[in-house]
Amino acid sequence: MSRWEGACNGQCHIWMRLREASPLAAATDRLNALASFEGTVHANIHQSAYSDNRADDFSIGRLLGIDAWSSKPGTHDAIYTKTINDLNRMALHVNSHSNLRMEMLPRALETITGYAMLRLSLPGRQSPRHTWAIHHAGQGHMTLFDPNYGEFHVPNNRLPDFLRTLNEQIKLDLGNTVARIDIAPCIVNPEFDDTPVAALCRSLLDSGQTSAPSRSELNSERQSVTEIDQAGKPSSKSQADLRRRGGKKEAEL
């Protein structure tokens, strides 16, 4: 299966839950949890639910978990109803943005506080959609998760250059750049603590660090931290770093 086919939407939702549960955990720990058997199962279940209901335009009712993905009889076994409900206890903010070009994205993201899903249109592909997740705490940087390339911590003033690099890498991988982006700000609600997804989040919390790691600690303890030069035009080295990462490494910008 190609990196560009799979459960990107499901992985983004699981990533948001994991980050909300343990924001001080290392990005590598979150990615390892996502790549685990449990994380993969949850992401695939969510992706199936999303795909089954996409034709219904993903209504606010479903995002709130009101109908618990039960509108199509027989779609899911009852054992997973609560899990799906848990994954999707999210509400849309009013400041959503639709049909944006990539160069419009940095300014639009400045209005986001908290989490958001970014749905990308990739023309010319059999599966023309891709998903990113972001978290913006208003502290001068933003965290972006791409299921194909990994988790990135990006200073706000370097976000335009970073997105340009990422878009160029997508073009190298797919032959075309992102055409349009829709932003759907989300509220992650972790109150449901008796579900398999909550158990996965607790396992990350239990193994995570008790204090925020310093830059030197990250560089000395985990070789997976990768520097990407964003000062000027994206270099071949930075693009090679993105290609090599393949969703398994953390980049600290």
Short description:
The protein is α+β, with helices and mostly antiparallel strands and 253 residues long. The chain has ten helices and seven strands.
Please explain how this structure is put together.
The structure is a single chain. Helix content is about 40%, strand content about 15%. Strand 2 and strand 3 form a beta hairpin. It starts with 7 loop residues before the first helix and ends with a strand. The C terminus is likely disordered. Helix 1 packs across helix 3. It contains 10 helices and 7 strands. Strands 1-6-2-3-4-5-7 form a 7-stranded mixed β-sheet.
Q: Any guess at the CATH architecture?
A: Alpha-Beta Complex
Low-confidence stretches: 55-94, 208-240, 242-253
The strand count comes to 7
Count of spatially separate domains: 1
The level-1 CATH class: Alpha Beta
Q: Mean pLDDT score, rounded?
A: 66
Task: Return the CATH topology.
Answer: Cathepsin B, Chain A
Distance between the termini: 30 Å
Major sheet? 7 strands, mixed
Structural class: alpha+beta
Percent in strands? 15-25%
Rg: 18 Å
Helix content: 25-40%
Spatial ordering of strands, largest sheet:
1-6-2-3-4-5-7
**Overall body shape:** globular
